[in-house]
Backbone:
């Protein structure tokens, strides 16, 4: 399944959450970022996310995420430098957008860099006792070394992702974040299940690939 398809569904889930829960622009950005990220994260595995033939739209989305993240990070850094105020939610959004654009690249250098980012998040989480960052950092550091549609495409990974989402929700004190994280990740597994290769939901307990199309 193409990365842009997963991303489009993820953004849809984020928009639905932004409409459902009490609205602020900040919260909307967070719901959309978490949903988009969750809908793409299973493909943090060794899989090349946006297939080797990148369409124009995929390329544009990737560059927008990458440079949007960079621009937002610069903005947050400037406000911090200028007024000593750290906009934590915006900083998170910037980091997520940057990583999203970045993970869409492919190859072993991509794997190493994604792992390094995961390691940095893990380190930061451990230094500051931030539970979701520890879980998320671990996930990002390990996932690139899993084979294509392996452990990241299982019920176990979905449960782990839900736990990370719950920890993030209590950190941000923002209702619905864990639901959005679970819905995003689940949407990825379901859409992959609709492809001919299917998904091994219970791997390694069962190596049977579950698919809807035959
Ligand atoms: Zn996938």
Residues:
């Amino acid at each position: 399944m193409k990365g842009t398809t997963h991303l489009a569904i993820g953004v849809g889930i984020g928009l639905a959450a932004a409409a459902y829960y009490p609205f602020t622009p900040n919260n909307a950005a967070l719901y959309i970022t978490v949903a988009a990220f969750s809908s793409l994260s299973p493909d943090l595995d060794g899989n090349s996310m946006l297939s080797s033939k990148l369409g124009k739209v995929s390329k544009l989305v990737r560059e927008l995420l990458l440079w949007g993240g960079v621009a937002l990070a610069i903005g947050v850094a400037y406000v911090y430098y200028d007024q000593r105020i750290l906009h934590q939610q915006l900083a998170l959004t910037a980091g997520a957008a940057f990583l999203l654009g970045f993970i869409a690249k492919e190859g072993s250098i991509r794997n190493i860099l994604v792992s390094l980012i995961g390691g940095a998040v893990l380190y930061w989480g451990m230094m500051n006792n931030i539970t979701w960052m520890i879980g998320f950092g671990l996930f990002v550091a390990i996932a690139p070394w899993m084979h294509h549609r392996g452990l990241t495409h299982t019920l176990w990974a979905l449960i782990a992702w839900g736990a990370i989402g719950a920890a993030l929700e209590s950190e941000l004190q923002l209702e619905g974040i864990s639901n959005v994280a679970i819905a995003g990740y689940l949407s990825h597994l379901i859409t992959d299940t609709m492809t001919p290769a299917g998904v091994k939901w219970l791997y390694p307990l069962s190596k049977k690939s579950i698919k809807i199309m035959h």
About this structure: The two ends are 16 Å apart (CA to CA). Residues 13 and 21 are 12 Å apart (CA to CA). The chain is about 70% helix and 0% strand.
